[in-house]
Amino acid sequence: MKKIIFTDKAPAPIGPYSQAVLAGNTLYTSGQIPLDPATGELVGGSIEAETKQVMDNLKAVLEAAGMDFSNVVKTSIFIMNMDDFAAINTVYGSYINEETAPARETVQVARLPKNVNVEISMIAVQQ
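Structure tokens predicted for DfrA (127 residues):
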């Protein structure tokens, strides 16, 4: 059985998808981009600011499902420019405990929604 997860502390979906779906004890988040949920505006200025907003959005979705970053088992990071990898990794690492870090891939892509520079999705499991 699946349960749709929604929180107003993360951006509302901008298409026919959910912020996350809980199937059994596994949570699948949709990709988050740097949208401020309060204003609906893109956060910009630096790749660090964009990544922080993405991680804050993911934190809100995880919390809405009764989880946190320690529950994450897999992360997918999509970036426009691999030269931003180190900066993204630094911000991402400030949210993730290195001792229990999830598996992860980082992929450079040609384009992301709303022309943002970073999008991240996660899979988490309730312990």
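The helical segments are 47-64, 85-93.
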